[in-house]
């Protein structure tokens, strides 16, 4: 929910900066099905069927990031999308290095007031002797603040990248655009974006 709230806040800043969200309707999305598969995989392993074979859940979690990376690669021409790709790659590296789970720092988990789940797949959890621990969920929105949760440096880059992408595509003042994408030359083709899935 923390990432969803961050994305919603980013969207809200676009019209405030003079951007036009309607411009997104003219954006062409390449290989959008890969993002749908990624979100579907994460929905199944985290919410629909969290119980079951841990190895299959871990494999599904890692695979979902593979589909996200494929989506980002197909739409790499979008300005600012490389930032989202970098954040996604950092998260994927930490998850892959820790058996399909994002390692969470005990101090961050405690600060956020999160209880360790007993049973079922957890996409983020305290891991014994984690690999690439610094790429894990080492930051926290502390309780009792709203949306208290843990997050990673990859998550920060993803949110920042989404902000850059949206402001660029919507032609806001923050993107330094003199004209909006919808007003640019007719017939121009633009490969598009929309993406933690787990975040």
Could you please describe the fold and organization of this structure?
- The chain is mainly α.
- The protein has six helices and four strands.
- It has helices at 2-16, 32-48, 54-74, 81-97, 106-112, 153-169; strands spanning 102-103, 124-125, 139-141, 149-151.
- It has a two-stranded parallel ribbon with strand order 1-2. It has a two-stranded antiparallel ribbon with strand order 3-4.
- The termini are close together.
- Mean pLDDT is 87; it is low at 178-199.
Search tags:
single chain; 199 residues; mainly alpha; two-stranded parallel ribbon; 5% strand; disordered C terminus
SSE arrangement:
Blueprint lengths: L1 H15 L15 H17 L5 H21 L6 H17 L4 E2 L2 H7 L11 E2 L13 E3 L7 E3 L1 H17 L30
Parallel strand pairs: 1-2
Antiparallel strand pairs: 3-4
Helix pairs in contact: 1-6, 2-3, 3-4, 4-6
Structure at a glance:
With 199 residues, the protein is mainly alpha-helical. Helices cover 47% and strands 5% of the residues. The protein has helices spanning 2-16, 32-48, 54-74, 81-97, 106-112, 153-169; strands spanning 102-103, 124-125, 139-141, 149-151.
């Amino acid at each position: 929910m923390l990432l969803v709230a961050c994305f919603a806040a980013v969207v809200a800043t676009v019209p405030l900066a003079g951007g036009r969200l309607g411009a997104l309707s003219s954006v062409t999305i390449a290989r959008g099905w890969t993002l749908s598969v990624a979100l579907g995989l994460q929905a199944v392993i985290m919410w629909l069927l969290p119980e079951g074979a841990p190895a299959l859940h871990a494999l599904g979690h890692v695979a979902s990031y593979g589909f996200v990376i494929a989506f980002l690669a197909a739409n790499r021409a979008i300005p600012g999308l490389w930032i989202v790709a970098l954040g996604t790659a950092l998260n994927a590296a930490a998850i892959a290095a820790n058996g399909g789970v994002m390692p969470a720092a005990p101090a961050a988990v405690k600060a956020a007031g999160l209880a360790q789940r007993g049973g079922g797949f957890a996409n983020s959890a305290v891991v014994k002797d984690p690999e690439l621990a610094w790429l894990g969920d080492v930051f926290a929105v502390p309780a009792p603040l709203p949306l208290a949760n843990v997050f990673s440096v990859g998550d920060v880059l993803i949110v920042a990248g989404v902000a850059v992408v949206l402001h660029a595509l919507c032609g806001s003042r923050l993107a330094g655009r003199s004209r909006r994408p919808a007003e640019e030359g007719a017939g121009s083709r633009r490969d598009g974006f929309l993406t933690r899935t787990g975040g």
